[in-house]
Structure formats: structure tokens, C-alpha cells
Amino acid sequence: MKMEIYRCDHCGNIIVYLTDRKVPIHCCGEKMRLLKADVTDGAKEKHIPVFTHKDGQIVVEIGSVPHPMLEEHWIEWIMIETDQGVSVKWLKPGAKPEAAFALAKGESLKNVYEYCNIHGLWMKKA
């Protein structure tokens, strides 16, 4: 199954669409926009998730140089997609742009996502 992430251009709601029943997704009276994840960095802020397998965990850091975590510009969340589901960690301004996720025995990582409040959705394949 293909996972999709949608955003409302009016209020900023973001949803992860896990089951496709071929029904349009709406918010604030309009269709939500399907987000396309960027996979290459071009900005001075680095957005591509960098991850390592460490002690049975996936440790994710945002950018080869740590991403700013300011009130006006920060990473809102980091999410992993595995062959068994998804897991999300929410971040706050002032925190480090990183998160750790435990994997179940036999679970394998597929993709790592992050959402920047200014530059949008970014992804790295496992």
C-alpha cells in the first residue's frame, strides 16, 4: 500500500492517508493538496533526513548540518515508514532536529520523512 501525505492550504492541517478508498480528501471546504517530498537539498538549510541504525533503533538527524530550530523556522515532525507501519515524533523550536525510533524484531525501514514549517516535506529512502 502506498502512503500519502496531504496538507490543507488554508489552515495547515496535515494528514497521513493510509487507506485509499478513492474518496477526495477535504478540509476547510476544499480538496487537500497531496505533498510531494523533496529528495535533494538546494537550500542553505539542509533538509534531507540522515539516519543510522544504532542499538536496535533508527536515529534520525535532519540535515548534514543541523537544521535551525527557531520559532519562525523549524522541523515540525519526523516520521519513519516501515514494512509494518509508521511512527511520528513531534519536535519543538529550540529542540535538536533529531529523533530515535525503535523497530520491532524483523521490521525493516522503508522511508524517513521530515516536515519543515517553511520548506515543506522531505524524504530519504532506506
From TrEMBL:
Task: Specify the Desulfoferrodoxin N-terminal domain's residue ranges.
Answer: 2-35
From the Swiss-Prot or TrEMBL record, what is one GO molecular function term? superoxide reductase activity
Domain Desulfoferrodoxin ferrous iron-binding stretches: 41-124
Transmembrane feature ranges: none
Entry keyword set? Electron transport, Iron, Metal-binding, Transport
Tell me, in a sentence or two, what this protein's role is.
Catalyzes the one-electron reduction of superoxide anion radical to hydrogen peroxide at a nonheme ferrous iron center. Plays a fundamental role in case of oxidative stress via its superoxide detoxification activity.
Q: What is this protein called?
A: Desulfoferrodoxin
Organism in which the protein naturally occurs: Massiliimalia timonensis
Lineage of source species:
Bacteria, Bacillati, Bacillota, Clostridia, Eubacteriales
